[in-house]
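WARN retry 2 of 3 for item q-0093 after timeout on previous attempt; input resubmitted unchanged.
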Amino acid sequence: MQKQIYLARDKGFIKVGKVGPRTIAGSDDPIQQCYVYYADLRHEMDQWLKQSVRLDPPGPNQGGEDEANYALAWFDHYLVTGSTDVLDHCQNLKLALSGWVDRECFHGYEPVAEAHHGPEPFLLFLPRYIGLVPDDQEAVSLLLDAAEHIGNWVDSIPDWYDYNRDVFHSFFIGTQEVREDGKNSYELAEHFRFIHLALAAYKVSTDQRYLDWSIRYGRKRAARILSWPEIPLLWDLDGNALSPTQVNQLGLHSLANSHHHHSGNRLGGIENLLASGAVYALGDLYLLSGDPIFQQATRKIVEPLIPTLVDPYNDPGAAVISYYRITFQDSSFDPLIETQIGKFPDSPPDQLALIFPERRKIRGLGVGKRADMALWGEWSEDGSVIPIQEPSTATLSLAYELTDDPVYAMRAFKSAVTRLSIARRVLRGGREHADMGGAICSVAAGHGRNWGTGAVTGCYGKLLLGLSLDQGQLNSVIEIRQSSGGKLIPPQLLSLVQLKFCRQYRIVFYNGSNIDLSFAWRLVNPSSNWEEVNLSVGEIIICSNQ
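OK item q-0093 returned
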């Protein structure tokens, strides 16, 4: 009888698989090419960190607002490489954030804030950091001191949440002021950010009130999403959707994030939800509660995004499609996804060009757009540039997930390292405003509408380790141990991880060095056993339980 292993975030046991036939990669094998681009990306990430430590001082907020979020791509890098330099830098960013909270906040949160920027210092960076350093009590306290206001749990602070209607009182909510005036009394996608904050607090504290509140509010938001034929830009506090005409009549363009949407973009409401990570919040709630309403709402968000897979800038859309498939174990969209994959260019561009038009404006429909974002083109030696057709790295990772074709993984790594290397040559780091569209961090981990998905984060940790979000922290499908004992991917090793349906997995290992390589791997679970592997030069093996 085969031993069984429980996999985190899956509701069953995974049977230990067998090692498939061993092969030697040729010079034109896409696995070998994939390793070359991955190794280059790993080097570029190291160089960017060194460059940033030298050149990117604290921004105007001196550690607060979205400053630390510029470091999101380095969490992938740390989990891949075990680089202590990453950990040191993230600890410094945490200290800067703590200093900002001491100077600028009241009771752990801004006294006057709105639902977009108010929770931002405690989302994305901080939960990921705590996932790496769970014993850092200062970081945990920063998170909990902010989260304890969500459900009106601190007597001396104005109430944020209306339990009678299950809505927030306003878009403007802080620890000293809640603006209950008409122009701010609407329910927005940004209020999903408080679900993220509450779930991150639950993960580190196991305090039941955070989970109970999150499920309660999440069910209401899911029901409201399902109540209307199209997902609106925003709702009133009675749960009624506002049409674009009403947004115009009431002058609510700022609340509706109209400046982030091209005129006529029917995905505007969905884009707003993606920009606040709503799909990941709904997925967390589904895994924690099992309530099917969370899958139903997520499906409604995801389905219209499938035609955007041919859009080179759809990074957050492709990421949530992949997340939906695995989290909800739903393959029903696969034929539609495969149709889009069939429309991809046959090969990647020979050379990329980074483009910043003179006029800043939203260009194109769909999701993943920002007026100041970096644009990409395909360069010709006559000096002409045509718009890029190559899919985003998140889309290419999804294509590999479905097809098992390593060409898509190779193209993802090629695109990621090319974009990062160009960005490092000409752009500033972005620490002063991580949400901006024209910095190195914007290329690596996406701008402020992408919820952490960019050219690097769309493929790096996802392909190598199977990284996914879990209540704000990053989870790996596998972990790898060097022969010397360190838990990191040896630089000579390429791993390509696919988590399949019905608790199945498929992992490709390749030795890209010129000497034999020994390592061990296991599924991420304390009860799983380490599997020792020896690879000769250029050797490929596939481990699978399919």
